[in-house]
Design a protein that fits this description.
Blueprint lengths: L3 E6 L5 H10 L3 E6 L4 H6 L4 E4 L25 E4 L1 H9 L3 E3 L5 E9 L12 E8 L2 E4 L4 E6 L7 E4 L4 E4 L11 H12 L8 H16 L3 E5 L4 H14 L3 E7 L7 H10 L4 E6 L1 H8 L5 H21 L4 E5 L4 H4 L21 H4 L3 E3 L7 H10 L4 H4 L19 H21 L7 E15 L2 E14 L7 E2 L4 H14 L3 E6 L13
Parallel strand pairs: 1-2, 1-3, 3-4, 4-11, 12-13, 12-15, 13-14, 15-16, 18-20
Antiparallel strand pairs: 5-8, 6-7, 6-9, 9-10, 10-11, 17-18, 18-19
Helix pairs in contact: 5-6, 5-12, 6-12, 8-9, 14-15
The structure holds xanthosine-5'-monophosphate.
The site of xanthosine-5'-monophosphate has 14 residues, from loops.
Length: 510
């Protein structure tokens, strides 16, 4: 049976990170609201429980509390930061209210040997981010590590199945953080670690077969990582009863449609390629408003998809590449946790065509989707790709979308991306692309005066697209890209680099 760890969410910005770390260690984890009742937790058969940190103070009115009954389930518990504080407070220990936040590095000093500290140096760096701190542990507990400012930086009970740490083991700045989490999972909770891409594929294929029976499934394949992995996985499960529909919107990147078709030609599958570019471009003619463009792209996509789907008789399921961050319940104490836009939903189709949804990736984080894709033999070109918006280049051309502008943007974008790949920078960037601005500026090439358009380079680092920072690409590389674009792309005589963060800007320009 698959081992599971539950992470109870008290609203920390690191909650998802805790879940990801345990999975990286080979243990499946799920995030649940902080106030999940012990009775419900028991039904889930978790092998360990982790209480996340959070922005609250235990002294705050209505601050979140854990159901203390979880401590009698015989399941090991680790409280992190606020998770530790609320445990201590609820069990009768003393937590000092502080106006000041301790934020940043500290040196952890181990006061004793302990299974939690196996392989951890006596003094090591940890990452702190807290206001309140524990002054006195509850009865039956003792402190096992301290820092200069915090006497109870790590605590445990006498039975050695309830632990708490003031610092954040899940962040990379904590030197032995992964080691301590691994100790908790494997030495305290005695887990084996049976969560791998292989085991996921095996049980998901079984689940899909069970769910779908003899039914037929349609899947909108965009060539992005999520829909590609979902398609190949479902194909493994039901083979020819899956129909993948790939719509060329005419707003894709240079050679993209061909590359996607080639990558899927290696699989035995029903792959339907619809070249609908003319139709999309006709609708976009004369349209300048970004939201209208988006609407047109979305509507046309649904229409094309629907027409194709209707040609296949007896379809009862629609596959979607929904990921775990999209389905995490509204668990945070700050209110519903931020839900990432689910862009590729084929709007309205499921109800209209009376389709049931199959979401084989809804348990996975993005990096896990990539591992699964790799294991399934997907082309690395598909697995490592940056996200690409459904409306495509239509929202990267400011103003009207014309065939000429598309062709200029495609060419510039392929140079930018090609150079990033060549330099090795591509994989460290969340998303990179060019934007076409139809503002003419003056230039000089040779002895001639030019009067051409502007090309923006945009490259950002991010973990989920919700916030982003501009990538610190080297000046040399930026210089090289600029020279190449201006020399090689007719219609561009000026290249600029976008150094806006999100927020307040967005990643895309429209
Ligand atoms: P923004 O521009 O909102 O983008 O910072 C965040 C992420 O979402 C992508 N994006 C879209 N994806 N349809 C999509 O499928 C859209 O209309 C759309 N708008 C933005 C964007 O590329 C980035 O990854």
């Amino acid at each position: 049976m698959r081992e599971k760890v539950l992470v109870l969410d008290f609203g920390s910005q690191y909650t998802q990170l805790i879940a990801r770390r345990t999975r990286e260690l080979g243990v499946y984890s799920e995030i649940k609201p902080y106030n999940t009742a012990a009775n419900d937790i028991r039904k889930d058969f978790p092998k360990a429980i982790i209480l996340s940190g959070g922005p609250s103070s235990v002294w705050g009115v209505g601050s979140p509390r854990v159901d203390l009954e979880i401590l009698s389930l015989g399941i090991p518990v680790l409280g992190i930061c606020y998770g530790l504080q609320t445990l201590v407070f609820q069990l009768g220990g003393e937590v000092e209210r502080s106006q000041k936040r301790e934020y940043g590095p500290a040196v952890l000093n181990l006061m004793t040997e302990d299974p939690l500290f196996s392989g951890v140096k006596k003094r090591s760096d940890v990452w702190m981010s807290h206001g309140d701190r524990v002054l006195r542990v509850p009865e039956g507990f003792r402190a096992i590590a301290d820092t200069r400012n915090t006497e109870c930086a790590a605590v445990r009970n006498a039975d050695g199945d309830i632990y708490g740490v003031q610092f954040h083991p899940e962040v990379v700045h904590t030197e032995f953080g992964t080691k301590m989490l691994s100790n908790f999972l494997f030495h305290v909770a005695d887990l084996i670690g049976n969560w791998t891409a292989g085991s996921f594929i095996e049980h998901t294929i079984r689940d899909i077969r069970e769910r779908v029976g003899d039914g037929k499934i349609i899947c909108g394949l965009s060539g992005g990582v999520d829909s590609s992995v979902a398609a190949v996985l479902i194909n493994e499960a039901v083979g020819r009863r899956l129909y993948c529909i790939f719509v060329d919107t005419g707003c894709m990147r240079l050679n993209e449609a061909k590359e996607v078709c080639d990558a899927f030609s290696e699989f035995e599958m029903n792959f339907i390629h619809v070249d609908a570019s003319e139709r999309f471009l006709a609708r976009l003619k004369g349209i300048e408003d970004p939201e209208t463009k988006r609407k047109i792209m979305g509507e046309q996509f649904v229409r094309v998809f629907e027409e194709e789907a209707e040609k296949i008789s007896g379809v009862s399921f629609l596959a979607q590449g929904t990921l775990y961050p999209d389905v995490i319940e509204s668990v945070s104490v700050k209110g519903p946790s931020a839900v990432i836009k689910s862009h590729h939903n084929v709007g309205g189709l499921p109800e209209k065509m009376n389709l049931k949804i199959v979401e084989p990736l809804r348990e996975l984080f993005k990096d896990e989707v990539r591992s699964v894709g790799k294991k399934l033999g997907l082309d690395s070109f598909l697995i490592g790709r940056h996200p690409f918006p459904g409306p495509g280049l239509a929202i990267r051309i400011m103003g009207e979308v014309t065939p000429e502008r598309l062709s200029i943007l495609r060419h510039a974008d392929s140079i930018f991306i090609g150079e990033l790949e060549k330099s090795g920078a591509y994989d460290d960037i969340w998303q990179a692309f060019c934007v076409f601005i139809p503002v003419k500026t003056v230039g000089v090439m040779g002895d001639e005066r030019t009067y051409e358009n502007v090309c923006v380079l945009r490259a950002v680092s991010s973990t989920d697209g919700m916030t982003a920072d501009w990538s610190k690409i080297s000046y040399d590389l930026l210089g090289e890209i600029s020279v190449r674009i201006i020399n090689e792309v007719k219609g561009i005589n000026r290249v600029v680099y976008d150094i806006s963060t999100k927020p307040p800007s967005t990643i895309e320009w429209q």
